[in-house]
Design a protein that fits this description.
Layout: H1 2-9, E1 13-17, E2 20-27, H2 28-36, H3 52-64, E3 68-76, E4 83-92, H4 97-106, E5 112-115, E6 119-123
Antiparallel strand pairs: 1-2, 2-3, 3-4, 4-6, 5-6
Length: 125
């Protein structure tokens, strides 16, 4: 099971410890696949970050607006209870300033926020 989650995450793995894989740049489609295959649930969350399900819903909203969206997080590799959580979101290609307001509302309470002409980014510690 652990090996398969590594295959799903592919080259997005940025750090590996015996109990967790830190990943970056996971696509919305891959996140949806991970839920479908049972490696996490839509209710899973990390600290104060939104749940995986809320990240998926907001990611779909981003795609509807024509944005490229990806996620960072941690996959816990316990064989008894594998789980993946998201702790950051990046949206690239924002042209609608009203959407920036939606993004800020979604990420309210994050520990780090970056808003510029290139991307929107939020991270929870």
């Amino acid at each position: 099971m652990v090996q398969h989650i590594e295959e799903i995450l592919g080259t997005t793995i940025s750090e590996y410890t015996p109990n967790a894989i830190k990943f970056c740049g996971l696509s919305l489609e891959s996140l949806e696949q991970i839920v479908k295959e049972g490696y996490t649930t839509t209710s899973a969350s990390f600290n104060a970050a939104p749940s995986v399900g809320l990240f998926i819903e907001f990611g779909q909203r981003c795609q509807e607006k024509g944005l490229i969206v990806n996620f960072d997080g941690i996959a816990f590799t316990s064989a008894e209870n594998p789980n993946l959580v998201v702790d950051a979101i990046t949206a690239i290609g924002v042209e609608d300033l009203d959407f920036v307001g939606e993004f800020v509302q979604f990420v309210w309470g994050c520990d780090e926020l970056e808003i510029n002409s290139q991307k929107l980014y939020a991270w929870w510690d």
